[in-house]
Amino acid sequence: MTHGYYTSGEPIADAKAPAGAIEERWTTRKFEAKQVNPANKRKKKIIIIGTGLAGGSAGATLGEAGYHVQQFCFQDSPRRAHSIAAQGGINAAKNYRNDGDSVYRLFYETVKGGDFRSRESNVYRLADISRQIIDQCVAQGVPFAREYGGLLDNRSFGGTQVSRTFYARGQTGQQLLLGAYQALMRQVDAGNVELYPRHEMLDLIMEDGRARGVVVRNLIDGEIKHYTADAVVLASGGYGNVYFLSTNAMGSNVTASWRAHRHGALFANPCYTQIHPTCIPVSGDHQSKLTLMSESLRNDGRVWVPKKAGDTRRPYDIPEDERDYYLERIYPSFGNLVPRDIASRAAKNVCDEGRGVGPGGLGVYLDFADAIARLGRDKVEAKYGNLFEMYERITGENPYDTPMRIYPAVHYTMGGLWVDYDLESTVPGLFVIGEANFSDHGANRLGASALMQGLADGYFVLPNTIGDYIARNSLPPVAETAIGEAQERVRTRIERLLSIDGDRSVDSFHRELGHIMWEYCGMERTEEGLRKALDLIPALREEFWTRVKVTGKGEELNQQLEKAGRVADFFELAELMVVDALHRAESCGGHFRAESQDEDGEAKRDDDNFGYVAAWEWAGEDAQPVLHKEALNFEYVKPTQRSYK
Amino acid sequence: MKLTLRVWRQSGPQDKGGMVEYKLDDVSPDASFLEMLDVLNEKLIASGEEPVAFDHDCREGICGMCSLVINGTPHGPERATTTCQLHMRKFKDGEVIDVEPWRAKAFPVVKDLVVDRSAFDRMIQAGGYITAPTGTAPEAHATPVPKPDADRAFEAAECIGCGACVAACPNGSAALFLGAKVTHLGLMPQGQPERWDRVVSMLDTHDEEGFGGCTNTGECTVACPKGIPLDVIGRLNHDYLKATAGGKKR
């Protein structure tokens, strides 16, 4: 059936979660999994793309289990994966605060926070495993914050009222990543993991419908190489850089996932992008990226704007009764700690009313004056010192004396390659973990849950499911023809990019694409805007393929060529994101459709028509994508309107 | 702002390389140093020249990928700052700025401003970890860690592995990098069983990789964007002596 811009395919019948009580499902699945004999493991090869929290922890664990792992990253060292930039913390249902937390509560809040667009079985498993992650990281020497008694400290995060977030000052991601990286390095030294930094995956080697290897480009000398294996794991992160300006690292890209998508891996919920409420506002056209200020700042900082539109007085000249602490006013029970989608939209709304602060009026205040008065400057500094420093460095303003200015920015993508309960994509033998898959966060990710998912997938889930695939399938050596075809695709594409020799830089196209996406497929979307984007993107893509200028050669370190390949993939992804956003005519999580709101202007979900995962199939360059639906059943957490009032 | 940049250009490891001068008008004082280089590269591409290769990724001061010796100082003139967090408002209008790669025997130049820092990974492989196989960990609260130890371990663990310490050291020593890791792991109770083997093995690898010896000039800690204190080197030396002369190594 066609719908103008997509066609409908068969629904997804089975996501492979075992039946039975939700508490038992993961145990059941592990018991049913076929095992690989320890002596055989070293003969089995696994390729992993990416070395962040998901990839690093998976590589370390699979290497330790005895598999032969080949692992690739585009950075010069696995320690630089973008997980390193996560600031705030990692959730775990340890109930160390005695505040009524439990696995069930974390599960419940994650399903609810994701606006009922994630799979219950996966989320329960995630909440359950969260406790083991903390044990593992502590054993590795991760220096989490501690109480004077020597026990671990916790704090709370947006969207939750218990303190379940473990943290290492404002550098939790860094410390967790170093733990995984060090464990991975240990396996490299032991000879179980072969490491290939400064290599980028450019295609998948397919044989008999299975993923059997990858073609990579050595970024130092441009050599095109191939590696084959029994299974391939993508741990290549999210695709927020499709917006050009985002909080992602500059190199974060969608290429690995997109190449797999073109071979039959379904891409699920591509339009689900998280807009993070607390980023430093844009300062000018030179800007290359946006910097996030940890959400933990909202524990003590109070968000406000002037009550009057167009009030340009300095913040401290605005008396208390002329300020609007709008989050505390609208959402009294959660206040400044409402979830990210709520906080982001509320900021946009007050700015749209003309009450935004700072250059261009695109900012709101995050004010620490009360916290400093209550706790003293020293305590505030101990908690948030490095974040304050970072803010001052970027803006030239001192947040101890004047309130920070923040504005929402593109941060995390909840969409990604579709995976079943085993984290296997629709391409047999291709597993997808961490931010690169779509599975656990629904339409909105709660703070401190990304690190939890990356490490749950890498340390505990994948190592227990991938063996079942390897044990059940006898995989003969890969034929030369399959390898040759994949290499040929890569070579042709590189030659094509280099031969255009146009007059516009790669970045200029990327910026323009980003503007279209932010304008029409950003925080708030309308049918009209999305249709407009569907006109603009293909036209710009065509222009890219005729006018882009890629300097240099293929056989050398060539950063322009790297970017060009990534931006070419962003163009195709962007179109799919818009198609997905257009077909989902409901508001949901970070995805707000202006046509779907209640009388208070809050997002209005439509469970009857959209209570499913949208998984898209690539149908060819000039064909419309095919929509497959995975129905979501809620046996434990009954969908309700989310209210934080 | 108007600027004159003198940038190190080197087409590959075998090329001799040299400084090339570029002029830029209209640089925003709010731009970061790397964004300023983006502007230069856009200009070079427009005029048909090869853009300058440089390493960067997160652009928020934590990944450790950005490098650059700016006016003779690793990561530039601002204390405790990575190049990506250095903003042009710290420079004067009309200034002449020299931009060079890290210079150290153990960090060979790959191209222009890009160097090979993989020796750092090999030092970590030699023992910069705690052996804790997945799934075998005891309950996290089973071992309390005194807060002062946890805090000091954290400060050392903040090292981003950028290599500025090596670039600043007249001997090309990586003692600060090594000291930071040995201190981080050596202060945690979990790090004790491997403490003595770790320091010996890592220091041996350090020397094999071609890093120079430490003579306590202290340039490393001055250049460090994360302010890793010099006393981590004291701890490195202490642990090394105890491990070897004290016979602690297994």
From TrEMBL, chain B:
<dbReference type="InterPro" id="IPR017896">
    <property type="entry name" value="4Fe4S_Fe-S-bd"/>
</dbReference>
<dbReference type="GO" id="GO:0008177">
    <property type="term" value="F:succinate dehydrogenase (quinone) activity"/>
</dbReference>
<feature type="domain" description="4Fe-4S ferredoxin-type">
    <location>
        <begin position="150"/>
        <end position="179"/>
    </location>
</feature>
<dbReference type="Pfam" id="PF13085">
    <property type="entry name" value="Fer2_3"/>
</dbReference>
<dbReference type="InterPro" id="IPR017900">
    <property type="entry name" value="4Fe4S_Fe_S_CS"/>
</dbReference>
<dbReference type="Pfam" id="PF13183">
    <property type="entry name" value="Fer4_8"/>
</dbReference>
<keyword id="KW-0479">Metal-binding</keyword>
<dbReference type="GO" id="GO:0046872">
    <property type="term" value="F:metal ion binding"/>
</dbReference>
<keyword id="KW-0560">Oxidoreductase</keyword>
<comment type="similarity">
    <text>Belongs to the succinate dehydrogenase/fumarate reductase iron-sulfur protein family.</text>
</comment>
<dbReference type="InterPro" id="IPR009051">
    <property type="entry name" value="Helical_ferredxn"/>
</dbReference>
<dbReference type="GO" id="GO:0022904">
    <property type="term" value="P:respiratory electron transport chain"/>
</dbReference>
<dbReference type="InterPro" id="IPR025192">
    <property type="entry name" value="Succ_DH/fum_Rdtase_N"/>
</dbReference>
<dbReference type="GO" id="GO:0009055">
    <property type="term" value="F:electron transfer activity"/>
</dbReference>
<keyword id="KW-0408">Iron</keyword>
<dbReference type="InterPro" id="IPR006058">
    <property type="entry name" value="2Fe2S_fd_BS"/>
</dbReference>
<dbReference type="GO" id="GO:0009060">
    <property type="term" value="P:aerobic respiration"/>
</dbReference>
<feature type="domain" description="2Fe-2S ferredoxin-type">
    <location>
        <begin position="1"/>
        <end position="103"/>
    </location>
</feature>
<dbReference type="GO" id="GO:0051537">
    <property type="term" value="F:2 iron, 2 sulfur cluster binding"/>
</dbReference>
<protein>
    <submittedName>
        <fullName>Succinate dehydrogenase / fumarate reductase iron-sulfur subunit</fullName>
        <ecNumber>1.3.5.1</ecNumber>
        <ecNumber>1.3.5.4</ecNumber>
    </submittedName>
</protein>
<keyword id="KW-0411">Iron-sulfur</keyword>
<dbReference type="InterPro" id="IPR001041">
    <property type="entry name" value="2Fe-2S_ferredoxin-type"/>
</dbReference>
<dbReference type="InterPro" id="IPR050573">
    <property type="entry name" value="SDH/FRD_Iron-Sulfur"/>
</dbReference>
<dbReference type="InterPro" id="IPR012675">
    <property type="entry name" value="Beta-grasp_dom_sf"/>
</dbReference>
<dbReference type="InterPro" id="IPR036010">
    <property type="entry name" value="2Fe-2S_ferredoxin-like_sf"/>
</dbReference>
